[in-house]
Amino acid sequence: MWRCDKMVSAPLNQSWIGRNMTVTSSPDSTFVGRNGLVVDETRETITMLEEGREVIFGKNSIEFKIGDSDVAIDGTLVRQRPEDRIYRNKRSE
Q1: pLDDT of residue 10
Q2: Which of 5, 18, 25, 92 has the most CB atoms less than 10 A away?
Q3: Contact 78, 13 (CB under 8 A)
């Protein structure tokens, strides 16, 4: 989940494509600990390149970290188009 005191410094207001992602929590235990390079993001999904193959995760079923950030992002709270997410957060700073 987001920690409100760190939300401004979180990678939330940046593009995630081309950055490493690690799944930290999920109802499906096989997702936890998986990591790779984010290659695409839509309103509902994040596509990650893991060991040479693309894996698609539903945002509503994962909590994850981007890069070396210590802030976990709850996927259910970022279910919007990436361009809307980035624009909204930059505008509110």
Answers
A1: 56
A2: 25
A3: no
User: What superfamily would CATH give domain 4-92?
Assistant: Ribonuclease P/MRP, subunit p29 (2.30.30.210)
Neighbouring CB atoms inside 10 A of 48's CB total 24
* Residue 8 pLDDT exceeds 60: no
Q: Residue 36 is which amino acid?
A: G
Under 8 Å between Cβ of 79 and 43: yes
Tokens of 24: 């930290």
* Residue 49 identity (one-letter amino acid): L
Select from 5, 4, 6, 41 the least CA-distant residue to 21: 41
Q: What is the pLDDT of residues 39-83, one digit of tens each?
A: 999 999 999 999 999 999 999 999 999 998 888 999 998 888 888
